[in-house]
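ok trying again, last paste got cut off:
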Amino acid sequence: MKISSYFPQKIIEEANILSEVTEHIPSSIQSILIITGENAWQAVNQSIEKAFHRRQINFKKLTLRDYPTYEIVENFSTYAKHENINGVIAIGGGKVCDVGKAVADNLNSFLMTIPTIAATNAAFRKNSILYESNGAYIGAKQNQKCANVLLIDSAIIEKAPARYLKAGLIDAVSRAVDTRPYTLADQTDLTVAFIHQNAQLSADYLLKIGKSIAKRPLTSDEFVQTIDAIINIVGVAGAKSKGRMYRGVTHPLHNELTKLIDHHELLHGEIIALTTLVQLILEQDSYDWYLQFLKNIDFKVKIKNFGLADSKMVTQLSHNFILHFTDEVDFFIPNISESLLSSAIKQAVELIEIGGHALD
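nice, full thing came through this time. structure:
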């Protein structure tokens, strides 16, 4: 039996730490490639450029404007090899971090990840999630390691639109829902207990934060701890593995949905809000607490953006999920039918809409 654990070598969380970014780059790294997004670069360029100028370090920059695809990873990697790059810095959201990790893996180079939003824990994770150019999920590139340095500047993340923080809250809470059935099924498995307890630790704190957000702005300390819960604690939960991903229904259903709809207007966490509710319904578990959580954080996404008003689309989604994720389906609901899953999806859409959390 193989148990794997992958963590960033160094994690630094501090407001305005970007002004010292070059202090965390080894002196042996002489050629830097920065991979970033347009909005992310606008948020950090002054701090980054001043830091690099002070240390007299030159860098090249590539901007990611599309979904992370194998072609983009290969193109960026080819460019980096041509430029003799031996260090990669990924600055941005989950898609940028996934491309940066994949390129650094191809180069076997130093890697620093700098998240500019708290929408996911991609800056912490080892693997890269890749898509078709139209946004359809392909799978994960199995990189060899996590970042050498994960640099979290809370001052930068705090300036990002609130929508990204909400998506991060939703995605983090989903991990506790994902993993709970596995630990209930085998309470003697230490690895599963480790994964779930870290996910639940994050969820418990974020559910309390959700109640606070409903009443007032977060304090600086609350915001920093919220970032920590979303990126690092959930990252720790996903850092251990024993032959499976412990991802429940929520993420596989999300992945299949990306193949059927144009989700350019949706964030990952916004889709996960729906698929997490589907899992709770399938488990015949209480979901009132989850709807209240979505209400607390003022979750609003147009139902039509999910593309699930069409019964044929729901049926196709159910068919594809059961076809491609047999292990997950059999674990949660043995002998599940397409009609049962379709019913759960329709109920989840209706509950969110009736609850006033995703109205047009």
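cool. Residues 117 and 160 are 6 Å apart (CA to CA). DSSP finds 13 helices and ten strands in the chain.
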